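A favour, since you know our C-alpha cells better than I do. Just paste the record in under my message, thanks.
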Amino acid sequence: MFGYVMINPDTLTDAEKRRFREVYCGVCASLRERGGRRGQITLSYDAAFLALVLNALYEPEEQKGSTLCATHPTRRQHFSKSPMTLYAADVNLLLFYERMLDNWKDDRSHVSLALSRFYRRRYQEAAARHPAQAQAIRKELQALSEVEKARLTDLDAAAGCFGRLLGAAFAPYDDEWKPGLTRMGGALGRFIYLIDAWDDAAKDERHGSYNPLLPLRREPDYEERVYQILTMEIAECAMEFEKLPIVQDAGIIRNVLYSGVWTVYSRRREAAEKKRKAASDGSSPTDAQ
C-alpha cells in the first residue's frame, strides 16, 4: 500500500534533491540505529517524507555526516539524522511489523509470518517508545481487516481506517500542532489507500479479491470520479500543510503533495491509454510504444 509518496525530481533543484536524499539516508541510518541492518530493509520514501515534514515543523538539531552502506558500498552517502528521523524510523518499523502480521492472518503468508517474528523485538521496542501510535496502528489495521472481510463497498469505511492510522503516525507529540498534523496525515492516508485500490482494481477483479472501488469501476465515469475523489483528499492534505508554519524544505514538501504523489497514477493512466489506443487500432501494445 506504500510507494506513492515520492518526489517528482523533474521539478526540484539539485539542492532540493540532495536535501531529500540526506533526510532519506538519515531515516536509513536511524533504522540501523533502531533495528540494526535488518531495520534498514524496511526503509520507505513515506518515512522520509514524514521525517521531512516533522523536521521542518519542529526544527530539531540535525546531525549531518556521510557513510558507506550496503546499497552504496563504494560511494559515501550524506545523511542528516534528527529526533524526527528516529521517530519516522520507529513508525516505519511499527507499520512494517503490523503489515506482516496482518498478511499472515489474512493470507496465511509464511514469508510474512517469518518476517513478523524476525522484527518482533524491534517492534516491541518501538511500541514502548510510542505506545499511542502503536495502539492506533494496531487498532486501525484490525478495523480495516474487518471491513475487508465484510467486503464493504463504503469508501469512507475502508479508506477511513488507513486515514486514522496515518493521522496518528503524523503526530508525534500531544501539542498545539497535533490536530493539524493528524488531519494532514489522515487525508494523506485516505489518498494512499484509494490510489492503491485504484491501482489494484483490475487485478483484484480478476482474482475476486476485495476492493471497495469495484462497484464504481462498472460505471462509465469511473476514472473521472476516482480522479475527483483523489484530488479532494490530497487537496485537504495540502491545505492542512499550508496552515502549518513551515518554511524549511517547504518547496520539497509541496513538490511531493502537488506533483510527486501523482507520479504512479500518471504513469499507469498513460500506459492504459496506450493500450486502449493500440487495441482500437488493431495493433499490439508493443507497436503502440
The longest strand covers residues 63-67. The mean pLDDT is 91. The two ends are 28 Å apart (CA to CA).
